[in-house]
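Whether sequence alone determines local backbone shape is best considered at the level of individual chains. The sequence in question and its structure tokens are set out directly beneath this paragraph.

===
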Amino acid sequence: MSILKIARMGHPVLRAPARPLEPAEVTSARIQKLIDDMVETMQEYRGIGLAAPQVHECVRLFLAGIEHGDPEGDEEPELEFVPLINAEVTPVGRETVEDWEGCLSIPEMRGRVPRAREVKVRALDRRGKPIELRASDYPARVIQHEADHVDGVLFLDRMTSFETLTYLEEYAKYWTKNKK
């Protein structure tokens, strides 16, 4: 496995709509290696999601970190990086929530972004099999953020105001105490 180079804001790959993967491509050695390398890359940079365009691959594939386990339990929840291929993300209901987002492709910056509170996702898994899942709150935000990447959209494009756009250092100083 390899740690991949992250495309930064300004690189054209981040603004191009990605092409869908054919079902037969999904199980190819190239795509399986890409998925494994994306997991390793995300772990290296402590990301919670990563889209293929962010690693210079213009295909409709992204990973989303989904926690499993009992949130009320004594054990730490287990984080699973779920590959979602050719994902169709649909909001469930009309409720939106504005919260902080950052991006490996826009390092050291944060901003508040409105997103649907809950989404339904239809996609292919890494074996090319159809899957469907629902996510709410933070996992839904991660999925929507990564789904935007395969459409050539950055979180900045979703911000309704740039008043909260901040560098990470200032975010830690001035915004985290007002976060709740």
Observations:
- The chain has a mean pLDDT of 93.
- The CA atoms of residues 97 and 114 lie 5 Å apart.
